[in-house]
Amino acid sequence: MNIRFIARRFRILIAIGVGLLILSQTPFPQRLFKGQPLPQTQKVEKKNLIRSFSASGNIEASQKASLHFLTSGKVVWVGVKRGDNVYMGEALTSLDTTELQASWRQAEQDFISAKAEVEKVYDETGRKVDESFSEKVKRTAAEAKQNKAFDSMKKIEKQIQDSTLVSPINGVVTDISFVLGENVGITEAIEIIDPSSLHFKAEVDETDYSRVFIDQKVRIILDAFRGKIFNGKVIFIGLRVEFTSSGVSFVPVEIDLDYNKKIIDGLTGEAEFIENE
C-alpha cells in the first residue's frame, strides 16, 4: 500500500466526518423538508354541534284595534293624533249628536207618557189578580206601549254612546283616516297598536312541527336589520294548521323577542330555532 493511496482514504474519512458533524447540528424537520415550507399544525378543540332549523315569518301585535263608527256623521271632536299614547277607556273622537239628542228627548217623553198610562190602568183595576179579559187587554196594551218607548229610548242612548270612539286597549295611535269637520262613513277608522305586544309569528313547516317546544331559544334576523340578531323564545305553538295565500300549510309559532323601539308591526324576517347548544 503506497503513501498516495493512504492519503486519499484519509481525506475521504475527514470529509465524511465533517458531513456527519454538520448533519448532527441541523434539526430533523429542517433536514427532512430542506428547501420546502414546514407543515402547519393546529390545536384540536372539542366543540358541540348546534342543531337548528329555520322558518320565515313577520312581526305582529297581539294587541291592536281598528275602530270604526257604526253610523255616518260629522266629526266634531278629535282628541288624539298619530303617535299619541292612549289608554283603555280613553275617548278619542266624536260625531255630531245634535239630532240624536233631540230624538232621545222625544223618546224619553214618550216613555214618561207610556209609564203614566200604565200607572193609570193599575189604579183603575186596582191591580186585581182576577182581572177580567177586557181589563187584561187594556193593561197589557199599556205595558207594551211603555216597553216599546223604553226600548226606543235605550236604542238612541246606545247610538249616542257609539258616536264616540273609545280605545279598548293601551297603545299608540298609528293612523287616523279622517279630520275634524269631515263627514265620515263606517269605513274610516282609527288604528291603535300596543308596542309591548309585538312578537314574531313564524310559519313553521309541518315537517319541523315536532321539533318546536315552549321556551325554546330562537334567533331572529329581520330584513330591516340585516346583520343584527334578536334573541327570543317560543311562547305559543298553534293548535291547528294554517295556510298561506298560495295554499302552503304551516303551523303558527309565536316568539317573544328582545324589545326594540324600532321594531314595528309587519316587518318580515327569518327565525332560527335552536334544538341544542
Count of DSSP strands? 15
Residue share in helix: 25-40%
CATH architecture of the largest domain: Beta Barrel
Please indicate the percent range of residues in DSSP E strands (runs of 2 or more).
25-35%
As for the CATH topology of the largest domain, it is: Elongation Factor Tu (Ef-tu), domain 3
How widely separated are the two ends? 83 Å
Stretches with pLDDT under 50, minimum 5 residues: none
Largest sheet: 6 strands, antiparallel, barrel
Task: Outline the fold blueprint.
Blueprint (H helix, E strand, L loop, with lengths): L2 H22 L3 H5 L18 E11 L2 E5 L4 E6 L6 E2 L4 E5 L2 H28 L7 H30 L1 E3 L4 E6 L6 E2 L4 E5 L4 E7 L12 E6 L7 E8 L4 E2 L5 E9 L10 E9 L1
Give an overview in words:
- Helix content is 31%, strand content 31%.
- The model has no long low-confidence stretch (mean pLDDT 86).
- It has four domains: 3-32; 51-62 and 197-276, Beta Barrel (Elongation Factor Tu (Ef-tu), domain 3); 64-96 and 163-193, OB fold (Dihydrolipoamide Acetyltransferase, E2P) (Beta Barrel), CATH 2.40.50; 97-156.
- It has helices spanning 3-24, 28-32, 98-125, 133-162; strands at residues 51-61, 64-68, 73-78, 85-86, 91-95, 164-166, 171-176, 183-184, 189-193, 198-204, 217-222, 230-237, 242-243, 249-257, 268-276.
- With 277 residues, it is of the alpha+beta class.
